[in-house]
Amino acid sequence: MLLCIQYNEYKEIQMPIPLSSNEIIHVDHKIKEASYSMPHMQAASDHYMLGYLVSGDRKWFSYENIKIAHSGDVGISKPNVYHRNCAMSDIPYERYIIKFRLEALQPAINLVGQSEFDILCTDYLHFLPESQIKIKSQFEEMYQEYNNNTPYSQLILTGMLHKLFFTIYQEHLPIESSQLLFNKFDSRIHDVLVYIENNLEYNPTIDDAAKYISLSTSHFSRLFKEVTGCSYTDYLTATKLQHAQLLLGNTQLSISQIAYKTGFSNANYLATVFQKKFNCSPSKYRKTCIDGIF
Predict the structure, then answer these.
(1) Residues 37, 84 contacting (CB under 8 angstroms)
(2) Are 72 and 96 in contact (CB under 8 A)?
(3) Which among 4, 16, 75, 107 counts the fewest CB atoms within 10 Å?
């Protein structure tokens, strides 16, 4: 059954813990359950964030857009960008985050140019497997150095941050953004988007979604399209297909099991919708993933 959690329109927007006065770089490593979702929007006020997703699949929501990250991806977030993320798969969520003040990376930004740096911040960055291994190793080394906490660790971390940044800059794959841009911000719609992710297998109807944020169906339908630029049905279908792609590429579940987990009534209906969208059957898509084409 659908999650029955009372919606509160006036949810608190939280701020991450700021950097301490004696730090210009802070390195954090977390492992959480696959189902973990950030309960609130939050934004850093005094630092940038550079993150590496070790495992899991996450959907990231900001005031302006939606982005999707998979294991091996890197994201750079600027200060004062309000965001939250939630699970897209059953894979445990593990990530590294480097928080840094602008002055820690300013020399590198000056070298590549502000416009190039801004482009890197627009979406998650993807890499070939050999680059992912190298980048993960650098995050691990920075985490170890941060925990050494010697009098010169911050200076060492500054050098390591520059090395990591240039590895990312030189080795990321061409940016082909598929993010959804919002026409405007509405906290109620953002909460519905997370609600969809958390209840996808139950195929939440437009009536369910409207009820979740205490709106009439007609009001909700208009508001959803105003914010996202698409209908609720189109968005729900696109989200189901995103999850189906993940399950086809990363699990051995049958097509029927995937249909159930993604809210399709049966395997035949999933195959019909999948073929129409991608001009490819689910079985063929799975084979191409195994063969390394996708």
Answers:
(1) yes
(2) no
(3) 4
Q: How many CA atoms lie within 13 A of 255 on its CB side?
A: 16
Look at the alpha carbons of 217, 200, 177, 167 in this order and tell me if their dihedral is positive or negative: positive
Among candidate residues 83, 103, 97, the one with its CA nearest the CA of residue 39: 83
Cα–Cα distance for residue pair 129/132, rounded to 1 Å: 5
Structure tokens at 88: 């897209």
Residues 6+ apart with CB under 8 A from 48: 76, 77, 78, 79, 99, 100, 101, 102, 105
Low-confidence ranges of the chain (pLDDT < 70): 1-16, 177-179, 291-294
Q: Which of 50, 48, 69, 72 is nearest to 136 (CA)?
A: 72
Q: What is the pLDDT of residues 153-169, one digit of tens each?
A: 999 999 999 999 999 99
What CATH number matches the domain at 184-290, 2.60.40.10, 1.50.10.20, 1.20.272.10, 1.10.10.60? Answer: 1.10.10.60
Residue ranges, CATH 2.60.120.280, the chain: 25-171
Looking at the domain that runs over 25-171, which CATH code has it been given?
A: 2.60.120.280
SS3 per residue for 24-40 = CEEEEEEEECCCCCCCC
Q: Which residues pair with 181 in a beta bridge?
A: 65
Residue ranges with strand state E in the chain: 25-32, 48-55, 57-62, 65-70, 74-77, 83-87, 93-100, 180-181
Start and end residues for every CATH 1.10.10.60 domain found in the chain: 184-290
